[in-house]
UniProtKB/TrEMBL annotation, chains A, B:
Provenance organism: Nocardia aurantia
Domain of life of the native organism: Bacteria
PANTHER family per UniProt: HTH-TYPE TRANSCRIPTIONAL REGULATOR PKSA, HTH-TYPE TRANSCRIPTIONAL REGULATOR RUTR
Gene3D superfamilies registered for this protein in UniProt: Tetracycline Repressor, domain 2
Gene field: betI_17
Name used for this protein in its record: HTH-type transcriptional regulator BetI
Amino acid sequence: MVAPREPHEPKQDRSRATRQRLLEATIDCLAELGWAAATVAVVAERAGVSRGAAQHHFPTREDLITAALEYMFDTRTMQSRTESAMLSAIAEGADRTRAVVISLVESYTSTIFKAALQVWTHAAADPALRERIVPLEAHFGRVSHRMAVEALGVDDSDPVTHHLVQATLDMARGLGLADVLTDDSARRKTIVAQWAATLHEALQGRPGR
Amino acid sequence: MVAPREPHEPKQDRSRATRQRLLEATIDCLAELGWAAATVAVVAERAGVSRGAAQHHFPTREDLITAALEYMFDTRTMQSRTESAMLSAIAEGADRTRAVVISLVESYTSTIFKAALQVWTHAAADPALRERIVPLEAHFGRVSHRMAVEALGVDDSDPVTHHLVQATLDMARGLGLADVLTDDSARRKTIVAQWAATLHEALQGRPGR
């Protein structure tokens, strides 16, 4: 008896899956091995893709890094949207504020943040790379801010509210950087709890609250 | 008439001055050119020191980077002490709190921060370098925290106070990172003003206030 043949996976789906595997491997390589080690060859090996196939998708390292940046940006935006929708379901109050702060801080301690940090730091001395990153980051900053505002259920046209949300994102970024060389999770937990309580207090009585 | 001879600069003073010039050039090279470019040869040229003299002081790049890290640490500690003493002279109140927050944030947007960021980011994927940095950073974190507590004139044994000071340092670190790819000074100014006001409010009625 002949086993039924597997239906053919359409070629473009296979190609898309390979591309995604390469991009995810790039993020892992950047976060774990650092900027210099994240080459097409190393990434291809990590992804279990032949070097030829990898080079078909990304002829140069620059192509790979640029695509990975866009992929990181899309993933962060999508995660941020999903989180925001989930957080809005929590009853308004101190619990929701805390959940929003925890969620923001988590996004800055992720593998994607650690990978992005390698790219940002390299871009500090590479004007061409910087030029590609800056608009993506500015856009992501606006998305994150808007998601935080929606999740908190506050009125961002109030300058105090606007600046407090910005400060929260800056604090989250600082906690992300503090987690790069050591596991900072125990200290971070206490800081996040305090920040959430102080933020909640400061937002009371602001417009929209 | 014979001109009076210049007094001899003692040899060890000259040597110390050369060493310091090399370390300061290392910081500038790291901040401006990035990790990969900060080699003994590039640093020697920037410092106006012969390559031979540079290699006499720092036989390997590792020696140079390690010494530069210690120099950054000492400079940051010294600056932090001087700032703290100056800030303590301001009358206690919202003005002093704002001055303390401004001073902390400035220390995270300095050339030294940008140079240190290059080393931290590289160390994320270099366990030997990380091992050398982590104790220095932990020590500097404690020094910064103590200086901030003294400058604010607060009682750090109160957990809320302790965590608010920590959160302020984390926010300052995040603002430092936000300034690496673009000049973030205009946005930063508004965040710092808001957080200083919120921090001041939150510290009212805490022990020591």
